Every structure is written in C-alpha cells, then in structure tokens.
Amino acid sequence: MGSAAAPLRVLLDMDGVLADFEGAVLREFRARFPLEPRVELAERRGFSVREQYRSLREELAAKVASVYESPGFFLDLDPIPGALEAVHEMFHMQDTEVFICTSPLRKYEHCIVEKYKWVEKHLGPEFVERIILTRDKTVVAADLLFDDKDTIQGAEPNPSWEHILFTCCHNRHVQLPAPRRRLHSWADDWKAILDSKRRQ
After folding, report:
1. Measured between alpha carbons, how far is 41 from 26 in angstroms, rounded to an integer?
2. For position 4, what pLDDT does the model report?
3. In the prediction, which pLDDT does 5 show?
4. Around 94, how many Cα atoms within 13 Å sit in the side-chain half-sphere?
5. Are 171 and 150 in contact (CB under 8 A)?
6. Contact assessment for residue 52 and residue 46, using Cβ atoms and an 8 Å cutoff
C-alpha cells in the first residue's frame, strides 16, 4: 500500500497580504506630517516605501520610517479584505498546512511582538504557533508562498516554493514573465492555485 501524499504547505506573508501596511503608512504619514508631500497609493511603485519617499526629498525617508517603526503601528493594521476568511478556510482544507511567513523590520523593537499580537487578535492563538519569522524566506521549505514583494532573494537560489505575487498598490504595474502567477485579491480564485499545485 502506497504512502499518502504529503500535505500542501502554504506560506502567507503578512504585510500587504494579510495586513494593510500600505494604507496605514499613508494614513499615519498624512496625520503626522500634513504639510509634507506624500505618495498616494495609486502612485506607489517599488517594494520600499522608504525609498520612494526618499526620491521625493531625502529627509522624508526618515519621516515615513518613523511612522512604521512607532509602537502600535503593526498591532493596529487593518486586515486586507477577505484575508482572515481565506486563511481560516485554507487552514481547514484537507491535506493543507498553512504558515504565516513574515520578515521583521531591521529596527525590530516593536514590530516582532506586535506581529504576534496581531495574529492572535485576528486569527486566534492557534495561528501564533504557525508564525515563521525570518529575514530570508528562501530557506523555508513549502509548496507555495503568497507575497506582495515581487522579487524574493536569499541564501537559497532555488527555493522549494512557487512565489504567487499578491497584488498590492506598489506592484500592480509589475509585468510577470510566464509561468509566474499573481493573485489579485482574496476575492480572486486562490483555491484554483492550490488545486493546480496539488496536481503537479
């Protein structure tokens, strides 16, 4: 009798996939620095919000960083529409393992504990056990990684997972070469992506 197939292991990024980092940065920047120029969500380009603000004016990089490095920022992020429901549904799917794989800021004093608290608050204590905190996602073994960062590099040149680009304001313009795939939102057919991966 043959052994059962291994479960499909799915990694979900947090910021930009489960939690609305970009919307909160803009809202808080506008509130704190109302007279400064800002980057509206429709104008966001490139993964680093700090670098795009730096391109407006050098000192704006530190100002925008002060927003997301502040205590309470990560804890108060709103969930991305449909994310919590999708995660719970995915978690209860047969032969599926779901983990939250997120990278802390280099200035990590507040963000690490707040990421854990956010997960417990919005997804429940069982998901706290499913957090993988790493600066290098390439070394984590899985079948799929849903992430809004368009290019993910690290120590492993050929990660085991397929990177599904989750659409966010800063990557809408990115043209993906075949066979790379994109999930436009949690209202998009994420189950079809999991099903297709199981068949490979």
Report:
1. 8
2. 60
3. 77
4. 2
5. yes
6. yes
Calculate the CA 54 to chain-centre distance.
22
Sheet holding 144-147, edge to edge: 131-133, 96-102, 8-12, 144-147, 162-166, 181-183
Nearest Cα to Cα of residue 72 among 104, 24, 120: 24
Q: How far is CA 46 from CA 79, 80, 86, 108, 132, in A?
A: 22, 19, 26, 22, 24
Residue numbers annotated as active site: 13, 15
Please identify which residue in the block is written with the tokens 């990024």. 13
Reported for 123-128, long-range contacts at CB under 8 A and 24+ positions apart, including other chains, are: 123/84, 123/87, 123/88, 127/87, 127/91, 127/100
pLDDT profile of the chain (200 residues), mean per 10: 74 98 98 98 98 98 98 98 98 97 94 98 98 98 98 97 98 96 98 96
